[in-house]
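Vitamin B12 dependent methionine synthase activation subunit
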Amino acid sequence: MKETQEVLRYLGYRGKPADERTLRTIESCMNELRAAVTPRSLSLLLPVEFDGDTVLLGTLRVESGDLRRHLSGCGEANLFAATLGTKADFLLERASKIDMSRAVILQACAAALTESVCDEAEQKLSAEAAKRGLFLRPRYSPGYGDFSILHQRDLLGILQAQKKIGLAMTQDSMLVPTKSVTAVIGLTAEQTTCHIAKCMGCESLNCPFRKD
C-alpha cells in the first residue's frame, strides 16, 4: 500500500483517487519489476571533517555549502549507492516501444521500488548506527543544491560500485543502470523526526533538509 501511494504521487495523483484500471496496472507493473530485478546496494563509512564550506569525506574533498550544512554535527558519513540493475532498464525500454501508457506507470513503479530499496538498506545502516547511539541524516545526493552531480563519479569510484554492483556513470553524468541512487548519509548523535520520516512527508517549511 505504501509503495502504491508513492507510485501515485509520482504519477501526479496528489490527494486524488485513482481509477481501478490504473491501480491494476500499478499492481501488474510492480509484480513484473519484482520478478525481474535484483536490487543491490553498498555503503562505506568515512570520517567527516570541515574546512569552511569544504567537506572532507575521508580523502574526498567536496566544495559545497549545502552539504556542509546538511552534515553539520556529523563526525562520520556513509557513502551510499543502490540500483535495481539492468533488467529494470530493459523492461522500461520494451514498454516504451509497446505501450506508452504502461511505460509511464512502469517508470513510476521503478522509481518507487528504487526508493524502497534505499529505505531497506538505510534501515540496516540505522540499526548499526543505533548500536553506537547515533542516528542517520536523510540521504543527500550529488545534484542537490550546490553539491555537484559530478561528484557521483567520485562516490562510485570510492565505493568500487561498477565492480561490486554494476553501477557506473556516463560522460553526461547519468547513472547506468538508470534506476539507481548515490548519496551521502551523515551520522549524528542528535535525534529528530527527520531520521525516521521522509522529507516529502514533513510539514516543516523551514527544515533545511526539505526537498523542493
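thats it. The longest strand covers residues 40-51. The chain has one domain: 2-201. bye
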